Amino acid sequence: MYYGDYRTSTVGPNKNLITRSGLGGQGGGAIKIVTRHLILDGHLSADGEDGPPPSTAGGGSGGSIWIDCEELDGYGTISAKGGAGSPQKGGGGSGGRIAIYHAFMLNFNGTLSAKGGDSGVEPGAAGTVFLETRNNSKVEYRVLKINNYGLAYPWAVNKLQGRLRHLMKGIYSDTRYIGAVTWLHEADNYTFDEFHLHGNSHVALYGKASSENVTLYAHTLRGDRSGVLHIGRLQSIVFKFVDLYFPINTLVYFNASLEVPRRLSLREVYMEINGTLADSDDYTIDRDGKLFLWSGGNSFGEELGHFRFINMSIKSLGLLHTTKLPGHGPVSLHMTRFVVNAGGLASVDDFFLDSVNATIDVAGKFHFYFLLVLN
C-alpha cells in the first residue's frame, strides 16, 4: 500500500520499502511540476511496475505526481497506477497519489488515474486524486477522487468468509492483513467540496489506529454505488448533499457517526448503522437498497438502540433489517409514518416500533420475532 500525503503527493519517513532481489515490481517514482501554464497532450506517469513472471511477486505501488500551476490544458493522461501482480498469483500494487493545484482547468479533457494493480489473488487499493482550485493564495474548491475502476473487492482477513464486508469492527489497531483498502491517514480533519468514491473502492480513515478523533466534511458526495466507506471508532463523517440516491455503501461502526441529508434514498446500496446517525428525517429504502440498524447504534441525541425518523418507506425489493446485540435492549424506531410497500421487507428480531401511522401493503412483508408494539 502506497504511503503518502494526498494533498502534496509526498512521502514521509514511514514510506513503503521495496525489497527487490529479483522479485516484485518496483514502485513508481515521484515528480513535482511547478509552472504557470501546463499543456499536456501526452502521458505523464508514475506507475508501479508489474510483478515479473514466473514468480509469485506483487506489483509495485504507484508513485506520486504533484502539479502546481495556474492553468492546465490538454487531452493527455496523468497516472500513478499500481502494477499488476505476476500471473502466478502475485498481488496488485496499490495506486499512488495525484495532486493538482490550479486556478483553471476548463480546457483539460484528459484522464486522471491512480487505480490499483490488477491481480488474480488480491488487487491493489485505489490511490487518490486531489484537485484544489486556488485564486492566488485563497482556496476556492477542493475535490478528492478515489476510483479503483471496477477491480475486485478485497478479501476478508479470513478468506473463507469471502469478500470484505466488516473492517475489524472499526478498530484499526492491526492492518497488516488487510489488503486493497485505501487508507486516509494524513490528518485528523478533512474538508472537501466534493468527495468521489467509484469503481469498487474500499476506503477507511486510519486515525492513528482508531485512537484519535477524525472528522471528514464534504458538501457533495458522488459515486457509482459500488464504493464502500468504513467509518471507524472516534470518526465523524458529514455529507450535506447527494444527487437523488445515496451513491455509496456505508458502514458506521460503534462510537462513530454519520450525518446525511435529511431526505435520503437507498437504491442498490447498503448502509449499516452501529454508531450514530444524524439528520435522517425522511428515509426511502428503494430497489435493492438495504438498511441495517444495530442496537449499538442510535440517532443523534437518542439513547443506544433508539432511532428517530419522520418518515420511512420500504419499497419493492428494499430491506430493513434490525439486530439486537448481546447485552443491549431492542432496536426501537420512533417516527410519524412507517410504510412497507408491496415487495418490501422489514426483518427484525427484538424490536419496538413507535409510529403514529404504520402501513403494511398486501404484498409487503414484516418478519419479526419477540415483540412488536404499534402506538
SSE blueprint:
Elements: E1 30-39, E2 43-45, E3 64-73, E4 77-79, E5 97-102, E6 111-113, E7 128-135, E8 138-147, E9 181-184, E10 189-198, E11 202-205, H1 207-210, E12 214-223, E13 228-231, E14 235-242, E15 249-252, E16 257-259, E17 263-266, E18 270-273, E19 276-278, E20 282-285, E21 290-294, E22 298-299, E23 306-308, E24 311-314, E25 319-323, E26 331-340, E27 345-347, E28 351-360, E29 365-367
Parallel strand pairs: 1-3, 2-4, 3-5, 4-6, 5-7, 8-10, 9-11, 10-12, 11-13, 12-14, 13-15, 14-16, 15-18, 16-19, 17-20, 18-21, 19-22, 20-24, 21-25, 23-26, 24-26, 25-27, 26-28, 27-29
Antiparallel strand pairs: 7-8
Count, helices: 1
Secondary structure category: mainly beta
Specify Rg, calculated over alpha carbons. 22 Å
**What strand order characterises the main sheet?**
1-3-5-7-8-10-12-14-16-19-22
Work out the number of β strands: 29
Sheet having the most strands:
11 strands, mixed
Distance between the termini: 52 Å
Order of helices and strands: EEEEEEEEEEEHEEEEEEEEEEEEEEEEEE
Shape: globular
Binned, the helix content reads: under 10%
Question: What is the mean pLDDT?
Answer: 91
pLDDT under 50 segments (min length 5)? 16-21, 371-375
The proportion of residues in beta strands is 35-45%
